[in-house]
Amino acid sequence: MGGGGSTRRVTFEADENENITVVKGVRLSDSVIDRMKEPSSATGRQHRGPVSDEELKKRIAEELALERARRDSEAQKRRLFGKLLERERISSNEHLTRAILRERAATEEERQKAQRFARQLEEKDRELRKHDAYYKEQLARLEERSAQFYKVTTEQYQKAADEVSARFK
């Protein structure tokens, strides 16, 4: 990681209090500088006294490489998390779209069913009106025939009664 892959050059200088000022806009906190001045336990070397400029440059480069690697790792994690969120969003949208389409299909089916029932109801209503008109017509005919039979029967009765009355007078 920090062994030699960095192409970025960092120049620095020490001020009178041995604080490090880094040029080109890279800022290091005092704690980072203190850590760089301390002997590294990973290297196994023990330093006594001040650290040489070369050693300090090497440590700064290593720290910068580690920081860059950490930022790259975090950026990669954010990208992966972003991709995961995007996939989840797409999946949710697809699920929602399918649910909406199913609901629309069910609504359309219900609407068609309602229209079919309305047509059937109208057809039954027409049939009932037709039957009603037919039966009213039949009833009127029967009443007319009944009135004619009554009239004929009444006339015949009257005639018969007159004949009997005339005979037995």
From TrEMBL:
Keywords for this entry?
A: Disulfide bond, Lipoprotein, Membrane, Mitochondrion, Mitochondrion inner membrane, Myristate
Instruction: Name its cellular compartments.
Output: Mitochondrion inner membrane
Keyword Mitochondrion appears in the UniProt entry: yes
How is it placed in the membrane, per its record?
Lipid-anchor
Region named Disordered:
34-55
Where is this protein chiefly located? Answer: mitochondrion
Keyword ATP-binding tagged: no
Q: Name one GO biological process term.
A: inner mitochondrial membrane organization
Which GO CC annotations does the UniProt entry carry? MICOS complex
Pfam family membership, one? MIC19_MIC25
Q: What's this protein's name?
A: MIC19 protein
Organism this protein belongs to = Loxia curvirostra
- Gene name, per UniProt, is Chchd3
